[in-house]
TrEMBL record:
<dbReference type="InterPro" id="IPR005119">
    <property type="entry name" value="LysR_subst-bd"/>
</dbReference>
<feature type="domain" description="HTH lysR-type">
    <location>
        <begin position="1"/>
        <end position="59"/>
    </location>
</feature>
<dbReference type="Pfam" id="PF03466">
    <property type="entry name" value="LysR_substrate"/>
</dbReference>
<keyword id="KW-0805">Transcription regulation</keyword>
<comment type="similarity">
    <text>Belongs to the LysR transcriptional regulatory family.</text>
</comment>
<keyword id="KW-0238">DNA-binding</keyword>
<protein>
    <submittedName>
        <fullName>LysR family transcriptional regulator</fullName>
    </submittedName>
</protein>
<dbReference type="GO" id="GO:0003700">
    <property type="term" value="F:DNA-binding transcription factor activity"/>
</dbReference>
<dbReference type="InterPro" id="IPR036388">
    <property type="entry name" value="WH-like_DNA-bd_sf"/>
</dbReference>
<keyword id="KW-0804">Transcription</keyword>
<dbReference type="InterPro" id="IPR036390">
    <property type="entry name" value="WH_DNA-bd_sf"/>
</dbReference>
<dbReference type="InterPro" id="IPR000847">
    <property type="entry name" value="LysR_HTH_N"/>
</dbReference>
<dbReference type="Pfam" id="PF00126">
    <property type="entry name" value="HTH_1"/>
</dbReference>
<dbReference type="GO" id="GO:0003677">
    <property type="term" value="F:DNA binding"/>
</dbReference>
<dbReference type="InterPro" id="IPR058163">
    <property type="entry name" value="LysR-type_TF_proteobact-type"/>
</dbReference>
Length: 311
């Protein structure tokens, strides 16, 4: 009897809030999930879930069982990690979430190379600029730039990307070239949807910080859409330099206030276990940073630990 599997189904059902969502996450039918919950309840001799029209929630016994189940599953994951560290091969299924730009530019080619090197790996990569919860959505690793959001899990900052203020020559010709941060508030700001909504940009000059007020005119959830809005003359934006290098070189975009430095874009690796990274996660992160440094030598990378909101 796969008791760990039954406990995992219980945790998934509670995290998902319903048996149907739990079934979707585990790749099985809702009736199979229900049968596993019933089997676990018979095994423990207690009702674990209360089933309502809106979903499921834990009984008192279910909450106790879930607390112990999380510890048992974490311990088993640690056991697998310790045993895996004694092997030279990487195997198993790894679910990875990464932003669309990182996916196309770095992670896609990297994972193809990793799969060729380790044929026993089953890699599932999802490119999505939405901030995922690695615990609740069953991801082994997420690479995220900017804000992380309210996630359960742990992680660390792994890099910083230089950002610049950009606009099209046509937009500058029409609206004038800003000479001071105060001039930005008369321009239309194109904002990435993950950024703070307080309509302020933090700039630095000679190690002194300046808060520049901006007037948001367009918000985009895709970095490529932001570039299209910029080249189309919709306003100015704070953009990671490496994403816009081609447009800057060609003159399609020009840098604003070059003597002022916008805040860098932070890059994080987020993972579900407090036990740290396993060998596959370490290989992916290391390969990602190697590719970034090879293509963009000025990028700052780091391995400084950073604990996020815990499960």
């Amino acid at each position: 009897m796969d008791r760990l599997g039954l406990l995992n189904t219980l945790i998934t059902a509670l995290d998902a809030g319903s048996l149907s969502r739990a079934a979707k996450r585990q790749g099985m039918t809702q009736s199979a999930v229900s049968q596993q919950i019933q089997q676990l309840e018979q095994l423990l001799g207690q009702q674990l879930l209360l089933r309502t029209a809106s979903g499921v929630r834990a009984t008192r016994a279910g909450a106790t069982a879930a607390q112990h189940a999380r510890g048992l599953l974490a311990g088993y994951a640690a056991l697998e990690k310790d045993l895996d560290s004694q092997s030279d091969r990487l195997s198993g299924t790894y679910r990875i979430s990464v932003g669309t730009v990182f996916g196309r530019t770095f992670m896609g080619p990297l994972l193809l190379q990793l799969r060729q090197k380790y044929p026993d790996l089953d890699i599932v990569m999802n490119t999505d600029d939405r901030i995922v919860d690695v615990v609740r959505e069953n991801y082994d690793l997420a690479i995220r730039a900017g804000t992380i959001g309210n996630n359960e899990g742990f992680g660390r900052k792994i890099a910083e990307f230089e950002t610049v203020l950009l606009a099209s020559p046509e937009y500058v010709k029409t609206h004038g070239l800003p000479q001071h941060p105060d001039d930005l508030k008369r321009l239309s700001f194109i904002r990435y949807n993950e950024e703070a909504a307080n309509n302020m940009l933090r700039l630095t000059r000679n190690r002194l910080g300046v808060d520049a007020e901006v007037r948001v005119g367009f918000t985009a959830s895709d970095p490529q859409l932001m570039l299209q809005a910029l080249t189309g003359g919709m306003g100015f934006a704070r953009v990671v330099r490496m994403i816009a290098e081609e447009e800057i070189r060609s003159g399609a975009l020009v840098e604003l206030l070059p003597n002022y430095t916008p805040a860098p874009k932070q890059v994080y690796a987020v993972y579900p276990s407090r036990n740290g990274l396993d060998r596959c996660q370490e290989a992916i992160i290391s390969g990602f940073l190697d590719l970034v440094k090879a293509q963009h030598p000025n990028t700052t990378t780091t391995s400084k630990p950073l604990e996020l909101i815990t499960a």
